[in-house]
């Protein structure tokens, strides 16, 4: 199987600009090889709006199919997030061959590997490792072995009002000081982020905890390295930020779009969110549209920045009938420069290929992401992460809302981590 780009009849950039539906209609996906034989179709099980007809991933599949008519790929569009994982697990637990390629959230790696659902990619590690950012590559590994190929990533950033803040804060304490000062002079709230009781809260808390020097596990995840005292201090800081008004009213019910809307309506000085909000604020940012900028997230030390990684990697199903071709496809998604540039340029989706960020340095979001992703951290790709996260959500939420003593909550987090080693 040829993994190098062949002659392109239609470029992915043109696909995005001309409109995905129109181009897709113009391309004919045949089920036969050039000599009239039957082709061997691969199924890529991936969720989210870009997996739907006319979406970004369809354009990428069309390019592959032109270059590889003997092994065309078809997208099986799944629900987003937990719904996608549920559909995967229903098929994989039955050892079904319905799916050849699995789009795997960065925190599912360990679970899929431990369950025997995916093939090891150690045999193609060198190709993938040579072009991938370190953070996304780490998220695709479990037990020191590569189980998936990085595809798209994500990193959090701070959005701030330039008409209210001269320079972005470099520490979380400074952010609260500025937020409260602005409130004294206006009726605008402080920080909006993801404070509801769901996975997003754990992600936000980890960014605070990591930025204070905390860790969950040691490097190979064989021991808990959780500092209860440090975790207590971070939870106490959150509780104080919530009580003082540094966090906007309604912080404890907000998810991603709630935070975007709050900032967009002019009700917050700061917003912690993902890069997707930038274009939406530019297009229809209300009061904030002409007065916002982006910066790295603060830390407690004032040094550097730390973001939790988001994104998806691609794995080969252990039950695929054509693992070799499926492996070629996932490697191509990671290592083909046109594919990776298209994620950024057409879909505004952060790629995992390091060189793309150098090429797109003039784009403010991609330029900032190039710095953020160098220091971004993956949540542990543990098989038990879904259970760990649910307990952490409860403990963090109760502690910062004043319903549990922060030290007791921190001790609870340590106990949860130790119970799932």
UniProtKB/TrEMBL annotation:
InterPro entries: SBP (IPR006059). Keywords: Signal, Transport. It holds the Pfam family SBP_bac_1. CDD domains: PBP2_TMBP. The keyword Hydrolase does not apply. Belongs to the bacterial solute-binding protein 1 family. This is ABC transporter substrate-binding protein. It comes from Nesterenkonia massiliensis. The lineage of its organism: Bacteria, Bacillati, Actinomycetota, Actinomycetes, Micrococcales.
